[in-house]
Q: What sequence folds into this?
């Protein structure tokens, strides 16, 4: 079964992008909203396109769309109907595709690079709740109920033609199983990665061992990579070790910058350093990660630092 990530791998390494929402905030956007970065799809889509371009220019092989917080339920709470919600979700994919086209049109920038990918972000059910549930899990929903939630947004995103889906920040194994089952039963041509949020060096946010969640995806070939995101960097190497112990799939990680997040106040504490982030990534690579990038509070500078180490020939 074809793995789109293989098309951009160099020495079996793929560089992912960094944060979207916090980067938009850094550029002046107000994301104090239940829609989070999806709000910018309504208000300033050109900024999303520019962020994607800047990540490609920094060395990213994959851009992840600004659809993490986009859901029919979330848009409906803002008075946005089904058709407009579909258009906004698909716009998130088109913006990344447009950024890629612009990047690829610049022969000097593209020199020595493979044509990068667009991964359509499928955020967790908890992101729609906008209450920090993606860091706790325990939704109280069945796999079937989670399939019903994800089905229409996956259909909308896939219709826009991304290279793959990015199921990300899943706090529980049931949500990953829901995505994998949907692809197997209803979207057989789609490919996806699944990335979990974890609360410590061994367990998902809801307490399930990461190894158990990864094993449950073994028989789903459409899931082309598994790993961890939106998790403190200090936990990443042991988590990757757990995943590598039980899975033969490509491993990925894109942790937070190293700052700590307080979900109740929605504030970040601490500091970040691109050089330190890139240095930490050496441990993640040694632990088996083939796809490496950043999540919350990482920037194009972090991805540039990663690229300088992973692809020094560029």
A:
């Amino acid at each position: 079964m074809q793995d789109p990530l293989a098309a951009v791998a160099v020495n079996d390494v793929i560089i992912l992008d960094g944060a979207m929402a916090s980067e938009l905030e850094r550029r002046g956007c107000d994301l104090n909203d239940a829609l989070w970065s999806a709000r910018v799809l309504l208000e300033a889509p050109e900024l999303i396109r520019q962020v994607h371009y800047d990540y490609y220019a920094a060395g990213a092989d994959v851009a992840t769309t600004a659809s993490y917080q986009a859901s029919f339920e979330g848009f409906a709470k803002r008075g946005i109907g089904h058709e407009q919600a579909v258009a906004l979700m698909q716009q998130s994919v088109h913006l990344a595709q447009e950024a890629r086209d612009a990047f690829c049109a610049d022969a000097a920038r593209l020199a020595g690079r493979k044509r990068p990918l667009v991964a359509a972000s499928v955020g967790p059910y908890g992101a729609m709740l906008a209450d920090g549930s993606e860091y706790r899990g325990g939704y109280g929903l069945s796999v079937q109920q989670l399939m019903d939630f994800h089905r229409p947004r996956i259909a909308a995103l896939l219709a826009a033609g991304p290279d793959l889906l990015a199921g990300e920040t899943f706090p529980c194994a049931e949500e990953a199983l829901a995505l994998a089952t949907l692809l197997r039963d209803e979207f057989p041509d789609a490919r996806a990665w699944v990335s979990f949020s974890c609360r410590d060096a061994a367990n998902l946010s809801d307490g399930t061992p990461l190894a158990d969640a990864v094993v449950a995806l073994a028989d789903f070939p459409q899931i082309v990579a598994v790993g961890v995101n939106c998790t403190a960097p200090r936990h990443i190497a042991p988590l990757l070790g757990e995943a590598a112990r039980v899975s033969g799939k490509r491993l990925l990680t894109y942790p937070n910058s190293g700052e700590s997040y307080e979900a109740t106040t929605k504030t970040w504490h601490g500091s970040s350093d691109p050089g330190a982030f890139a240095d930490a990534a050496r441990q993640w690579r040694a632990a088996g990660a083939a796809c490496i990038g950043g999540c919350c509070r990482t920037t194009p500078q972090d991805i540039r630092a990663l690229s300088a180490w992973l692809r020094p020939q560029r």
Q: What stands out?
A: Residues 82-105 form the longest helix (24 residues). The chain has a mean pLDDT of 91. Strands lie at 14-15, 62-64, 117-122, 164-170, 192-196, 223-229, 250-254, 260-262, 267-269, 291-292. The chain has one domain: 4-310.
